[in-house]
């Protein structure tokens, strides 16, 4: 599993730039940033280097930030790669809260999934390869 | 251990005799020396001679805060300035300030009343008490100070503010008892924890005496846990005396009313008729020993009830329940009466929600709108829309069913809700 940086933003102008600014001030490199928006607030999900230090930097800046363990699964960067994974999860009754994907280097794509259950064994039994945190970002201690 | 065993555990019949004797004196003293009291009594057709039992007090007219404002500054003083030793005044934020005078005896009795609470949290002459209420015209600081001196404690008059220093003193001086407002006690606890201490384990403190603003059971428990203390709720109001009118014993089920100095009644705030013991209504107080500013049937605006069952602690003075609201804190939203304490009670049932909150009242297109700003606890998962929506929906539904009013819920960032060093500002009325 990897540690995702999660930030809660009540809808006020400038808060996303506060997030980006605080991370850049702390010298933290972002790999992917996804925003989930509702009419009233936003949730920002980030994969970055040293996620625990990043969460502390954002908390110090007065933001509601935390790290969340999520599954990172390698999928072939070909049509149908994601469909296969989702179909498998459905078949096994794994409830996906949310997901997003991003490219890692040249060789392939990574699907990030939030599943409210222990799913690692099930995913591996289905032939899906879990990506280690070290392959994606610089790891730090909680 | 009691501070004044003979008085605090006096058999009820004997206590009632003492009350009647003192009430007769007090009502006559007020009638003879305060023109306003004589006038309203004469208008109501009653006088001191009509008081032959404690129950006769219901024949007398009420006094209200406006009477004190109208009499500003000294119109309700019953003794010459020669005998007045101190004057306190209310902040006057909601109108003309009110003043209360104290004679030497008044100040002595005040110290005694508060001292009973110090014993309730296990204090004695060996204790060190830190008074972090504001000192000044506000009665909190000097009231707690007088209690500490009456017991013979080492009193640390830190007053409020400079919270890091409060923590330092609490640790270095080995404070046993802290007296301040509940929100400030929590703020001190949080500051200590932020500074890297575990006050529950590392500090000597074992009791807190907190009052002057409401606190939910959740907030009380948070203070007990974070500081590792017994919690004593203290009730008082500057018009009547100050903190110490009623104090919560170790049984933690209501506050013993200082019945040797004050006579409590509970009335229906609309009809002004007395309600039976156990029913909620407005607390009305007649002072029994106050010399400078005696009051006859003073309407406090505080909503509570009398708990008349005997208390396992052995004290015989009847208890009042925690104050659930103020008759004039009542918000009227689209014609519905809403107390902040009702909202607080709902929040208490949601462990995901932090205890600090703010109510914002606005008006849009002639319609009142009520919004509630709350923070989630740090371990609440903020990465999932579904969980956040679910929390907002459940909280909204619970508020709707309790208040009969739709409440808009805003989850806000941590620490955006003001933690005040004095009274918490929980309602923002922008209408
Ligand atoms: Zn008791």
Describe the structure.
The complex is a heterodimer of chains A (142) and B (431). Chain A is an alpha+beta fold. Chain A has two domains: 2-69, 2-Layer Sandwich (VC0802-like); 70-135, 2-Layer Sandwich (Alpha-Beta Plaits). Helix content of chain A is 30%, strand content 39%. Chain A contains five helices and seven strands. In chain A, strands 1, 2, 3, 4, 5, 6 and 7 form a seven-stranded antiparallel β-sheet that branches. In chain A, β5 (96-104) and β6 form a beta hairpin. The longest helix of chain A has 11 residues, at 15-25. With 431 residues, chain B is of the alpha/beta class. Chain B folds into two domains: 7-15 and 63-328, ANL, N-terminal domain (Rossmann fold, 3-Layer(aba) Sandwich), CATH 3.40.50.12780; 336-429, 2-Layer Sandwich (GMP Synthetase, Chain A, domain 3). Chain B is 32% helix and 24% strand. Chain B is built from twelve helices and 21 strands. Chain B has helices at residues 5-8, 12-33, 35-44, 65-70, 104-120, 139-151, 163-172, 182-194, 199-202, 217-227, 340-348, 385-403, and strands spanning 86-89, 99-102, 128-131, 154-156, 177-180, 207-211, 230-236, 243-248, 255-257, 262-267, 281-287, 298-304, 306-307, 319-320, 325-326, 331-333, 336-338, 353-364, 367-376, 407-411, 427-429. A nine-stranded mixed β-sheet of chain B has the order 4-3-5-6-7-8-9-14-13, sandwiched between helices. In chain B, β7 and β8 (243-248) form a beta hairpin. In chain B, α5 (104-120) packs across α6 and α8 (182-194) runs parallel beside α10 (217-227). Chain B is globular. The model of chain B has no long low-confidence stretch (mean pLDDT 92). The site of zinc ion (ZN) has 6 residues of chain B, from loops.
């Amino acid at each position: 599993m990897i540690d995702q940086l999660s930030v809660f933003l009540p809808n006020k102008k400038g808060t996303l730039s506060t997030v980006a600014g605080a991370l850049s001030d702390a010298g933290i490199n972002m790999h992917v940033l996804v925003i989930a928006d509702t009419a009233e607030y936003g949730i920002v999900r980030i994969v970055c280097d040293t996620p625990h230090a990043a969460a502390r930097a954002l908390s110090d800046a007065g933001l509601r930030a935390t790290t969340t363990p999520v599954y990172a699964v390698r999928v072939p960067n070909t049509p149908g790669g994601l469909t296969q994974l989702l179909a498998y999860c459905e078949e096994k009754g794994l409830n996906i809260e949310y997901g997003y994907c991003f490219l890692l280097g040249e060789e392939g794509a990574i699907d990030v999934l939030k599943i409210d259950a222990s799913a690692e064994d099930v995913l591996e039994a289905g032939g899906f390869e879990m990506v280690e945190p070290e392959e994606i970002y610089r790891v730090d201690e909680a | 251990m009691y501070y004044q065993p003979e008085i605090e555990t006096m058999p009820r019949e004997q206590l009632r005799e003492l009350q009647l004797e003192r009430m007769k004196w007090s009502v006559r003293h007020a009638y003879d020396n305060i023109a306003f009291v004589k006038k309203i009594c004469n208008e109501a057709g009653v006088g001191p001679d009509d008081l032959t039992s404690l129950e006769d007090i219901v024949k007398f007219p009420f006094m209200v805060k406006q009477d004190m404002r109208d009499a500003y500054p000294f119109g309700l003083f019953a003794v010459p300035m020669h005998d007045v030793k101190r004057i306190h005044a209310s902040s006057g934020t909601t109108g003309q300030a009110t003043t209360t005078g104290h004679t030497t005896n008044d100040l002595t009795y005040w110290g005694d009343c508060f001292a009973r609470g110090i014993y309730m949290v296990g204090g004695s002459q060996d204790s060190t008490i830190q008074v972090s209420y504001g000192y000044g015209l506000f009665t909190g600081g000097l009231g707690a100070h007088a209690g500490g001196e009456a017991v013979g404690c080492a009193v640390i008059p830190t007053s409020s503010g400079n919270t890091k220093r409060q923590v330092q003193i609490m640790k270095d001086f080995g404070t046993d008892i802290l007296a301040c407002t509940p929100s400030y006690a929590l703020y001190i606890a949080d500051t200590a924890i932020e500074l890297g201490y575990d006050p529950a384990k590392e500090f000597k403190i074992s009791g807190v005496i907190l009052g002057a603003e409401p606190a939910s059971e959740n907030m009380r428990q948070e203070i007990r846990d974070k500081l590792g203390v017994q919690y004593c709720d203290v009730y008082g109001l500057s018009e009547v005396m100050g903190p110490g009118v009623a104090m919560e014993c170790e049984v933690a089920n209501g506050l013993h009313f200082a019945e040797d100095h004050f006579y409590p009644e509970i009335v229906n705030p609309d009809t002004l008729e007395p309600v039976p013991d156990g029913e909620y209504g407005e607390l009305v107080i007649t002072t029994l020993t106050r010399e400078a500013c005696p009051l006859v049937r003073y309407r406090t605006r505080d909503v509570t009830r009398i708990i008349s069952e005997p208390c396992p602690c052995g004290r015989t003075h009847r208890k009042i329940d925690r104050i659930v609201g103020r008759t004039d804190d009542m918000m009227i939203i689209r014609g519905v009466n809403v107390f902040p304490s009702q909202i607080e009670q709902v929040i208490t049932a949601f462990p995901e929600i932090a205890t600090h909150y703010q109510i914002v009242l606005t008006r849009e297109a002639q319609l009142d709108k009520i919004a509630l700003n709350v923070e989630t606890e740090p371990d609440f998962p903020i990465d999932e829309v579904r969980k956040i929506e679910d929390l907002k929906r459940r909280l909204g539904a619970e508020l709707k069913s309790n208040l009969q009013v739709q409440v808009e819920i805003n989850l806000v960032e941590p620490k955006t809700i003001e933690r005040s060093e004095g009274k918490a500002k929980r309602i923002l009325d922008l209408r």
